[in-house]
Amino acid sequence: MIPQPTAQQALPDETFTLQPDATIGLTDPALRTIADGFAARLRRSTGFALPVQDGTGTITLSTGGPESLGPEGYELRADASGVSITAATAEGVFRGVTTLRQLLPAKAEAGTAQDGPWEIAGTTITDSPRYGYRGAMLDVSRHFFTVDQVKHFIDLVSLYKINRLHLHLSDDQGWRIQVDSWPRLTEYGGSLQVGGGTGGAYTKADYAEIVRYAGEHYITVVPEIDTPGHTNAALASYPELNADGVAPKLYTETEVGFSTLTVGLDRTYEFLDDVFREVAEQTPGDVVHLGGDEAHSTPHSDYLTFVPKAAELVVKQGKTVMGWHEIADGPLPAGTIVQYWGTEDEKAQALAVKAVEQGATLVLSPANRAYLDMKYHAETPLGLQWAGLVSVEQSYSWNPATLVPNVPADAIHGVEAPLWTETLDDLEKVEFMVFPRLPGIAELGWSSEDALDWTTYKDRLAEQAPRWEVLGINFYRAPEIDWR
Ligand code: TNX
């Protein structure tokens, strides 16, 4: 099982077998969508009717579980008489159902009818996460991914109890979210992508559908509008945002650090006020990410002027500011979430410490461990290697609590695995970089410190492969793992 639950005990004499007459019961109408989704999946693979009914069933989903397990915690019991999942919230029940999927045989994930038996070894599980923020990031700017492709990405990360989807919605190569007050951002600024091919952008309806689908998986979308660098697509769309009033050309290569918003221009903040307002309006979650990374073309004094002004515009929308760790060099609003992407370099570590001294919390995305776009080894056909080669072991073998020196453990808000897409233009390539590394980052975010052990993890990881095969996931068969 990945992530490893907090506590699991075998019931040695008990086996649950799903029979053709099984039912799925819910003791709270709020669990209907979860029950329907789970039933639909199991109907496809088992061919059973699996009616969903109020009250108890062969498999019973309930709220009313202990508050002490937190909003995502749950208890699960599987024995000869049935399966029960109980949590304080619907979200906790959803995480429990995710666990139940992994307890069932891999073929339960199939899209067509398979032969049983559908057995689960008797067990009790009590489980809750170590961190409240367990993210995956998809860069839809360098290459555009359609709503259906993003939904597929959500399906994949949801298997491992990821609860945040960070969407990198703007960069030099493309602006991907509709802003009614600045329509050329998508019409023109979203038209291309890396390599010069046709790009794309989400209409408000598209974006709402992503947010809805993520919500159905108890995943909160964290939208990122990258500022003040990584802004060529915006600058190309509106000449008035440029210091000289001249729009640059659209950009379809992969350099970073050459573009910047104009810090001394009032229009810059009118622009951001509109953008953050419209983006915040479409964000049920409480966080908006303002980027802040690699602003190599912004004079540092300008950068220090800019970040608090941009942050204020996010706060004004009632949202919590999130940004890459560079933003910590200046003052941060209360409650800011700083995303650390350092590679054990002292400069990045000092910024993380500076963030925490200001009361910010940290989401850890160390590039030499958590970046899913880094090559596995020198011959990996996809990906980059500026942060080094990131094997499966390298990506898993670190402790979020001690990664950054001089940062107290309680300042860690969680972890996130970012997928930058300079070299990735379809889902097969995305899957190849995400699997098998994402489950490891998900486990670092969920499981207790004492459960983290590469030797046992790598056996549990190998056991996931049959599921990925049934699901048709194009995963990398890393030779470090004893695939079965
Ligand atoms: C650095 S790390 C970036 C991105 C690139 C990525 C490629 C960070 C916050 N920014 O602009 O896409 O490296 O790995």
Automatic annotation (TrEMBL):
<dbReference type="GO" id="GO:0005975">
    <property type="term" value="P:carbohydrate metabolic process"/>
</dbReference>
<dbReference type="GO" id="GO:0016020">
    <property type="term" value="C:membrane"/>
</dbReference>
<keyword id="KW-0326">Glycosidase</keyword>
<comment type="similarity">
    <text>Belongs to the glycosyl hydrolase 20 family.</text>
</comment>
<protein>
    <recommendedName>
        <fullName>beta-N-acetylhexosaminidase</fullName>
        <ecNumber>3.2.1.52</ecNumber>
    </recommendedName>
</protein>
<feature type="domain" description="Glycoside hydrolase family 20 catalytic">
    <location>
        <begin position="131"/>
        <end position="448"/>
    </location>
</feature>
<dbReference type="InterPro" id="IPR025705">
    <property type="entry name" value="Beta_hexosaminidase_sua/sub"/>
</dbReference>
<dbReference type="InterPro" id="IPR029018">
    <property type="entry name" value="Hex-like_dom2"/>
</dbReference>
<feature type="domain" description="Beta-hexosaminidase bacterial type N-terminal">
    <location>
        <begin position="2"/>
        <end position="127"/>
    </location>
</feature>
<feature type="active site" description="Proton donor">
    <location>
        <position position="294"/>
    </location>
</feature>
<dbReference type="Pfam" id="PF02838">
    <property type="entry name" value="Glyco_hydro_20b"/>
</dbReference>
<dbReference type="GO" id="GO:0030203">
    <property type="term" value="P:glycosaminoglycan metabolic process"/>
</dbReference>
<dbReference type="InterPro" id="IPR017853">
    <property type="entry name" value="GH"/>
</dbReference>
<keyword id="KW-0378">Hydrolase</keyword>
<dbReference type="GO" id="GO:0004563">
    <property type="term" value="F:beta-N-acetylhexosaminidase activity"/>
</dbReference>
<dbReference type="InterPro" id="IPR015882">
    <property type="entry name" value="HEX_bac_N"/>
</dbReference>
<dbReference type="InterPro" id="IPR015883">
    <property type="entry name" value="Glyco_hydro_20_cat"/>
</dbReference>
<dbReference type="Pfam" id="PF00728">
    <property type="entry name" value="Glyco_hydro_20"/>
</dbReference>
